[in-house]
Amino acid sequence: MEKSTRSDSVLDMSPTSTVGGGVEDIYGEDRATEDQFITPWTFAVSSGYNLLRDPRYNKGLAFTEKERDVHYLRGLLPPAIASQELQEKRLMQSLRQFEVPLNKYVALMELEERNKRLFYKLLIDNVEELLPIVYTPTVGEACQKYGSIFRRPQGLYLSLKEKGRILEVLKNWPERKIQVIVVTDGERILGLGDLGCQGMGIPVGKLALYTALGGVRPSACLPITIDVGTNNEQLLKDEFYIGLRQKRATGKEYFDFLDEFMTAVKQNYGEKVLVQYEDFANHNAFELLAKYGTKYLVFNDDIQGTAAVVLAGLVASLKLLGGSLADHTFLFFGAGEAGTGIAELIALAISKEINAPVEEARKNIWLVDSKGLIVSARKESLQAHKKPWAHEHEPVNDLLDAVKAIKPTALIGTSGVGRTFTKEVVEAMASINKKPLIMALSNPTTQSECTAEEAYAWSEGQAIFTSGSPFPPVEYNNILHIPSQANNCYIFPGFGFGLVMCGALRVHNDMLLAASEALAAQVTEEHYAKGMIYPPFANIRKISAHIAATVAAKAYQLGVATRLPQPADLVKYAESCMYTPNYRNYR
Fold first, then answer.
1. Which pLDDT belongs to residue 3?
2. Which reaction is this enzyme known to catalyze (predicted)?
C-alpha cells in the first residue's frame, strides 16, 4: 500500500510505486539507493566467470578481496585492485591516443558492452569531451559504417519479417520493465539521408544520453530500429549491409506495421512507457506524431525536442537583443520537420505572451524552402505542414533576397544543406541588426549552414552564433567568442526523465514551453558575457534535474501525471531518482 504522505526520495516509497509508477529499482540504479548493498543476480546469483562477463555488474579490477572470495573470482583477475576512478583515468588516457573519432566511438561501445557503470561514469565525468563521440557528429559516421563496425546487437531490430509477431519479438528483450524506447526507421539519419537498418546507432546513442545526462536507468531503456527496407542503392549493394535488402515499404504496409508496433509496445510495457521517434522522414514524422500523440506517450525529438531547445536559446538571447519574442522577426531556411516544429513552438510562445491566437503570432515567422520564400501564392502546391506559414508577400526565390525583404532579427538554418549561409547572407543580416542572431542548426558539422568562424568574420564579430554540432571558440579582433550549441541533449534527457518520473500519460505543448523556460533560466550573466545563450554542458545533470522537475510540475498541473501523491520538492525528488554509475558493493 502506497504511503499517503508526500515523499521526496524513492526510499520513502513502496517498491511498486517508484519512478514511472511501477518500475522497480531491481539493479540498485537510483542515486537514493547507492549506499545500500545489492545482490548481483540474473535469474540466479551471478558469480565467477559469468559475473566478469555481465556488463551490469562487472567491475573489472575494482572487486574487493572479500568480493573475490565470495563470488569465486580468485585467479580470474590479476591480484591488483584498481578503483573506479583509476580505471576511468586509464581509459580516458587510452581514448585520447586515438586520432580518428570513429575509433573512439568503437572503443566506447565496446566498453559499454563489458562494463556499463564504467561507461556511464566516463560519459558523465567527461561529457563535453565525449558527447561529440557518442552523438553528433561521430555517430553519423558510425551509422554510415555500421555494417563494417558491427560487433554485437545493442538494441532490438524489428523488420518486416516479424510482421504479425512484433509482440512476441518484444518479449525476446531481456528486460521487462522498460521506461523509455527510442525508435527509428533509419530514413533520415541526421543530414545523411536513408541509412536503413544502420540507423541503430541513433537510438543507442540517444539512450546512452538519456542515462548519462538525464538519469534514466540503463535497464529501463530500449533502442529499436524498424527495418522496412532502404532506398539507398549503395547500401543495398554493400555486402556488409545488415538490414533487409529491399526497397522501403510505404503506404498501408508501412503504417499497418507501425500500428502493430505501437499496439504491441503498449500491451507489453503499459501506457506509461515513453516512445521517442527519431530520424523518421518528414512525410512520416508529422503523420505519426499526429496519429499517436493523442493515444500514447510519444515524443518526436526532431520536431518537439529541437523546437524546445531553439526556443530556449531565443528566450535567453533576449537578454542580449532586448525586447520580447513578439518584438522580433524570425526567418527559417528549411521547412521540414525541424523548421516547422521550431516555428510552431515559437508561435505558441508568442501567442501566450501577447494573449492572441497562434495564427496571429505566426505572422512574425517566415520560412524559406528549396523553392524560395513560402508565400500565399504557393499555398495550393504546399505540403500540409508548410501551409500555415504561407503569408501574403510577393514571391522571393532565394535566401539572400528573403533576408533583404523580411529583415529578420534571427536567421535559423534547418535545411540539412551545408554552407548555405553565405558571406552575402551573413553580411546582410549584420547590416540589418546590431547583433544578428545566426543559428546554423543542421547536423553533422559538414551540413552546418555556416561555421562559427565564418559567422563571426562576416559579421565583424557582432553575430550571436549557435550551431547544431560543436564548433571551437573563435578569436576575432582579439576577442574570444564562444559559440553556443543548440544541442537537443539539453532538452530530451531531462524532458523524458520528467515524464517518466511523474508517470505522465501524454506529452503536451505546455510541457515543451516549460522545458524551454527552465533551460533558458540556467544561462547566467557570466555566460552572456561570453556571447553564450546556452549553459555549458559540464552542468548538464543539474540542468536535466531542473527540466525534469519543471516538466513533471506541468504534468501534475495538467492532470496527466499518475505518480501520486506529488512529491513536495520535485527537484530533490528528480535528483534522488537519477541513475548513478558508481560501483556498488556486493553481498
1. 41
2. (S)-malate + NADP(+) = pyruvate + CO2 + NADPH; oxaloacetate + H(+) = pyruvate + CO2
